[in-house]
Amino acid sequence: MARTPSPKVHNSPAITITRTAYAASELVYIAYANKPLRYQHGKSKIAYIGTTKKGAGRVANSAVWKAEELFARKGVHTLEFYIIAAPRKGKVATYRKLERALLLRFRERFGSIPHANKQGKNLRWRDEYEFVTPRRIDKIIDDFSA
Question: What separation in angstroms does the CA of 59 have from each of 68, 92, 113?
């Protein structure tokens, strides 16, 4: 007689949504891999930097698409998506400025944009530092690269 398959319950959640992510609509998010990924000038666990003005739903959607691409890399078994909410400054879309600054600084430090990013290879600095300090950008990258 064939054995009946038994459902397996996993110990960790597949997706966790926080109040901050749910409340904010314009935000930047970072995909953080379980292991450092190799770049031209070092290693970082940052696999993707994205932005949305549609809130946490877009982050969840992006997680599905980016996971497919990143899980193909050897040793990548989990991805965590972290939200960075950028407060508005007048009519300026500061979340876009923050994303650009993160991509530009990441490229300067590691030699290329994160693996799962398609756009951003040819970005040039504009006025991003008027909205977010270089020290803060470096701290965010450092916190997620270790």
Answer: 14, 22, 19
